[in-house]
Design a protein that fits this description.
Mean pLDDT is 85; it is low at 36-46. This protein is mostly helical. The protein has one domain. The chain starts with a helix and ends with a helix. Helix content is 34%, strand content 6%. A hairpin with a 2-residue loop joins strand 4 (133-136) and strand 5 (139-141). InterPro entries: AminoTfrase-like_pln_mobile, MAIN-like. One of its GO terms (biological process) is meristem maintenance.
Length: 456
């Protein structure tokens, strides 16, 4: 490759190429050199202890029989909070629209509490805690920010959340109650206006019970700062917080599979995993529903596809379905189809080969690497990399050998931020040398992989 072209490709998110038949496709960049002699990559784990559970010499399925003890922290049934949600929405819907959470809150009106434990566990069997990806036979797959946007309506852009984001706090009762008791304590009387404290309390409940699904089944105070930030109409990028929360819960769930007693009390946004699995298994397992939800979100539709029958015998069906993904297919990229039911701002712009110029910022968020701070408490803050280069084909792009954001000797992806100086960490990792550009052009989806990727 010529030096001039190499410099351009090192700064571009999309790298076009054409085949002999004239069809134009694209790799997901940037191009940072595809060394043909050195196949090792620090992006991959060197410790066998992080290999997916499916590689265990023996798996005792009897440990996964009592799913009531394994899964406790799923969203409560909608009837418990629906009347409170309706009350708050009647006065705060315009605020939710301004904060870009209106569509996401609508999901709480549907059956997020329904899940298929055998489907979830079968997928977690394939989770690698080091790469933070499901290692299917066709290589890495994982929910991306595009998947989250389609399911929840959350855009991949917005402010980073940090704990000192509030300039002034609004007083609220400092109680730690179960969900029902919290609702009873904070819901306003019928016929009265929704107060600031009631709205913040509702957002705390929603974040705890319906979004992040805390293991205590209570509303902890550490969601207060995020709830008040949303009340204050700060444009927090919830989609990235949700993604890293899913990473954390999958890491913990995968690690718990290796315990002699089996997993217990799994928590976090596993409802998101269920909906994503419904999407990729919809055709393969013929998941259907006759109910059409009155909501223009894929997430609402996907809630109706969750299988209702539970049986330990279903492990074989789901494991076989995963193992049948020997080649990457459109089933693993379910949200780039032209018939998408997602949010209106994404519906006509969900194919990267036909994006409009006014959606460049959104697609830059989907496709470019980033650093995400997890945790809503200072002591829980950790750094996670968002590296869509691992999952290029899920966007309809071709796959090159991915490279890490920084060499492993430079920074640990799980480094704790003890001092709270987030900007200093970002400046260190996302230095100007990694600045990328997204230049749109027209091309068609394709699932090709490079030779260097195959050797790697």
């Amino acid at each position: 490759m010529e030096e001039a072209s190499l410099k351009i490709f090192q700064s571009q998110v999309l790298l076009p190429f054409s085949l002999e038949n004239g069809n134009v496709h694209a790799f997901l960049g940037p191009f940072v050199g595809q060394n043909k002699k050195k196949f090792a990559n620090t992006l991959l784990p060197e410790d066998d202890s992080t290999l997916p559970f499916i590689h265990s010499a023996e798996i005792d399925l009897s440990l996964f029989g009592d799913t009531t003890k394994i899964f406790r922290a799923f969203p409560p049934i909608k009837d418990r909070h629906l009347s409170w949600l309706t009350r708050i929405e009647s006065e705060m819907s315009s605020s939710w629209v301004e904060t870009s959470i209106f569509d996401f809150i609508q999901l709480a009106k549907f059956d997020l509490h329904l899940f298929d434990p055998q489907m979830l566990l079968s997928a977690i069997f394939f989770w690698n805690r080091e790469t933070r990806a499901f290692e299917f036979p066709c290589d890495f797959v994982c929910p991306t920010l595009l998947d989250i946007a389609t399911i929840t309506g959350l855009a991949p852009i917005g402010e980073r959340f940090h704990h000192d984001i509030l300039e002034e706090e609004v007083p609220i009762k400092e109680d730690k109650k179960t969900y029902l008791a919290f609702i009873t304590a904070h819901v306003g009387k019928s016929g009265t206006s929704v107060s600031t404290s009631e709205h913040i309390a509702f957002l705390m409940y929603w974040l705890s019970a319906c979004v992040f699904c805390t293991p205590s089944l209570q509303v902890p105070k550490y969601y207060y700062a995020l709830a008040q930030a949303l009340h204050s109409k700060k444009q927090i990028c919830l989609s990235k917080l949700l993604l890293v929360s899913l990473y954390t819960s999958l890491d913990e769930a995968s690690e718990s599979l290796f315990r002699e007693t089996g997993p217990r009390n799994l928590s976090g946004p596993l409802w998101l995993l269920q909906l994503w699995l419904n999407a990729i298994f919809e055709k393969k397992l013929s998941l259907t529903s006759s109910f059409t939800p009155p909501c223009a979100l894929e997430g609402a539709r996907l809630t109706t596809l969750t299988p209702r029958k539970r049986s330990i015998q279903h492990f074989a069906k789901y494991i076989d379905a995963i193992l049948s993904f020997t080649n990457f297919s459109e089933d693993l990229a379910p949200f780039i189809r032209t018939t998408l039911t997602g949010p209106s701002w994404l519906r006509q712009n969900n194919q990267v080969g036909h994006i409009s110029r006014d959606s460049l910022e959104m697609w830059f968020g989907f496709l470019s690497w980033d650093i995400i701070f997890s945790g809503v408490r200072q002591k829980d803050v950790r750094i996670y990399p968002y590296q869509p280069q691992l999952f290029a084909r899920q966007f309809g792009l071709c796959q090159m050998k991915p490279l890490p954001l920084r060499p492993i000797e430079s920074i640990d992806a799980d480094i704790c931020v003890d001092e709270g100086n987030y900007q200093e960490v970002l400046d260190f990792i996302l230095h100007p040398g990694t600045e990328l550009q997204l230049t749109p052009f027209t091309f068609s989806p394709f699932f090709l992989v490079s030779r260097c990727y195959l050797r790697w």
